[in-house]
Each structure stands twice: as structure tokens, then as C-alpha cells.
């Protein structure tokens, strides 16, 4: 059964309006696809792959400017040295579990070779978070075909959230977490733009969880809903954030946008623990960068015009994390461990009692 999103509960955070799907796919040409693997034999699998695909999968030969930010670096996002050097993204962005980053990366390389879109070499961007509490991560369940299936499944429109794709086995603020997405519309530099975010949320203490300032995690204690981990265990965890916009930004501006994902994370209660891989990537489709062109004409917003985009990023990331929590369902997995869903009746009750 599909659980409601945050706005389906009558709760809206921020001041900007969302796009029609309130998803990263509201940015024109951005698609999302998932492969979800759930089985108990021969070994327990609660894992998958999520693909964020710019330019209707033409990003292989029509690059996007991009930038990134590491809030805390105990994680992996491949391809960053060349992204730093060139400022360009030339592949979909994939997210999976910690032990299978290499496999998903190699699958994207194989796809580029088999489809003739490679230009000498390719260094795909693949991120990860650790799902080993619910998934037998040492079983190396995923195959290259699973990764390619997520790419083939990529499509516009509404995006499945919660226990799907790379987020299948993830945990957020000691509730069931996973994939979430949201978008915001804004005006900047004389134009109207869309900013979208997709998160793989797998981080955080229960007591830090906030809903528009409400100390939600403290209102739903472990006596009400069991916490994911034993009391003596540090929750640790990680979050990958992908931000997309159709605004004409250059690489340094994309990096500035990626940094603002930190604001959205902080609003929900992320603090960047030592064991957390909090890695954020932003790309912009407002300029076309065809492979092989030796001279390009570009547009860019003035730096002073970017404030609305910063606000849009913070709001989209904040709501994407909350959507992941709302959508995710209780899951039992590896070694019989159970992680409980955020109780939505408690969320609406707390919201109704807020003082603002």
C-alpha cells in the first residue's frame, strides 16, 4: 500500500511553490528510474539502484554543467576529480549500496560502450549509502543487469519513494528511510526556473528529527516506536543529495547550489556525524554542451541573482527527506531486524498542536 507524501497529510514546509509532481522530474528532461531487489533466498536482499537521468538520457553527448559539495566525507561519489576539472557531467547519476558502487559504475561504462555514446572515456558519477542493517550487504546481490534495468526504467513524471531503488534498505533518523524527492519553482535573473532534489536518506539520530522546527523525533520516542538500533550503537549513516535545475548556471554556481543542500538537511536534523557520508551534487541543464564542439556560447545568471535558487534548493531538499520518511514502510530484513516506519498519525497530531 502506498503511503501519503508530506503534502498529502496537509503539511507544507517552506514558502515557495512545488512543481506539478513535486519531484526532481519537474526539471524538464530529468528522468528517474529504480531497480528494487527484495528477497530472502539464497541470502537476504533489501537493496537496489536509483538512476537520475538528465536530458532524457542524452547527457552522454550533451553534457551538463555540474558541481558538488562534501558536508562530511565518509562516503563515495565516483567521478568527482574529472567533474572538478571539467565542470561537466556526462552520464546519469546512480545511487546504490556501499559495496556495489563499482559494479554500478562499470554497468554505466558498459552501457556507454554498447550504445556508442562513449567519447574516448567516461567516468560516471555513482554514490552510495550503507544498507547493511537490513540488507546482507556482503552477499553482493546486485548485478550489472540490475543497474541497467534502473536506467531503462528511467522516466518523467511521478517518482516512487521510500523503500525503492537504492533506498530500499535505508534508515533515516532511526525510522525507515530511503528515496525522497521534491521541487520548487522560483524566479531569478529575469527568468522562471525549477529546482528539484532527490535524496537517498540513511542518516541521523531520532532525537534530532525536526518537522518545520517541531522536535518531531523527541515527540515519538523509542517507547512509542522502537528505534532502529540498540541504544549503545551510533546511528551514523549517510545521505546522497542530487539537485537539478533548468537555470543557466556555470560549474561554480552549481557547486554553490550543492552547498545549499546542507541547509535543507540541517532543517530536518542532519548534523554531519563523523561516520556519515553527506555528499551533494548539483547539475544545471540551462546550457547545452554537445560533445565534440570546440567552441560554445553560454549563458549564466549573475551571482547576485541566485538567492531564489538557494532558497529553492534548501526547501526542496528539506521536503525530499520528509517525503522519504513519509513514504517508507516498516521493513524486516537481515538477521530478522525490523525498522519501523514513521507513524504518520503522530506526525499529523504533532502538526495540529504546533504553536505557529
Structure description:
With 356 residues, this protein is an alpha+beta fold. The chain is built from seven helices and 14 strands. It has helices at residues 80-86, 101-114, 144-153, 216-219, 251-268, 307-327, 344-352, and strands spanning 31-39, 45-53, 62-73, 88-89, 93-97, 125-129, 171-172, 175-176, 178-188, 191-203, 237-245, 277-290, 331-332, 338-339. Helix 2 (101-114) packs across helix 3 (144-153) and helix 5 (251-268) packs across helix 6. The longest helix is centred in the C-terminal third of the chain and has 21 residues, at 307-327. The radius of gyration is 19 Å and the shape is globular. The chain starts with 30 loop residues before the first strand and ends with a helix. The mean pLDDT is 96.
CATH class: Alpha Beta
Just name the CATH architecture: 4-Layer Sandwich
Give the strand order of the largest sheet, numbering strands 1, 2, ... along the chain.
Answer: 4-3-12-11-10-9
- Specify the structural class: alpha+beta
TL;DR?
This protein is an alpha+beta fold. It is built from 7 helices and 14 strands. β7 (171-172) and β8 form a beta hairpin.
Write the topology of this structure.
Blueprint: E1 31-39, E2 45-53, E3 62-73, H1 80-86, E4 88-89, E5 93-97, H2 101-114, E6 125-129, H3 144-153, E7 171-172, E8 175-176, E9 178-188, E10 191-203, H4 216-219, E11 237-245, H5 251-268, E12 277-290, H6 307-327, E13 331-332, E14 338-339, H7 344-352
Parallel strand pairs: 5-6, 11-12
Antiparallel strand pairs: 1-2, 2-5, 3-4, 3-12, 7-8, 9-10, 10-11, 13-14
Helix pairs in contact: 2-3, 5-6
